[in-house]
Amino acid sequence: MSDERENLTYTVFGQAIRELAQRVADDGYEPDIILSIARGGLFVAGGLGYALDVKNLHVMNVEFYTGVGETLAMPVMLPPVPNVVDLSRKKVLIADDVADTGKTLKLVQDFCAAHVAEARSAVVYEKSHSLVKCDYVWKRTDQWINFPWSVLPPVHRSGEAPKENKEAL
């Protein structure tokens, strides 16, 4: 993997979401639901929801990346899995931050295929080797992407005891 990185800032992210939403609108696609792939897709879905005036947002939790360039063998859906009754016969826009390998998006598309009227996908970034070619893409890159929400380490890692706040004493 190259040391070069694609660096996305919150300011540029705001512009990217508006442009991505405009591509969806220009195409005439009017989703009933935006289905975000957590975690990175939550930011994308929220922005698209406002820009496309879609209030019905759902979340699908999928675990695949475990570190920079490190993944599980296959993506895994984590509970709670969306209730298919909520998706039935709806036009769904699947939102994620990046289509890297495409395996996560493929898992979600396959889940939707038997239940929804139509599913399309929107991502901020798509990589050339993604096995899913998304319907709406803001930018294509093959670099590792530093997203503003994940570039810094966590303030607190789950499972750790909270650090003592000495200033409060």
TrEMBL record:
It holds the Pfam family Pribosyltran. InterPro entries: PRTase-like, PRTase_dom. It comes from the Bacteria. Residues 13-151 form the Phosphoribosyltransferase domain. Keywords: Glycosyltransferase, Transferase. GO terms for molecular function: glycosyltransferase activity. The keyword Phosphoprotein does not apply. Gene3D superfamilies: 3.40.50.2020. CDD domains: PRTases_typeI (cd06223). The keyword Transferase applies. Signal peptide: none annotated. This is Phosphoribosyltransferase. It comes from Streptomyces spirodelae.
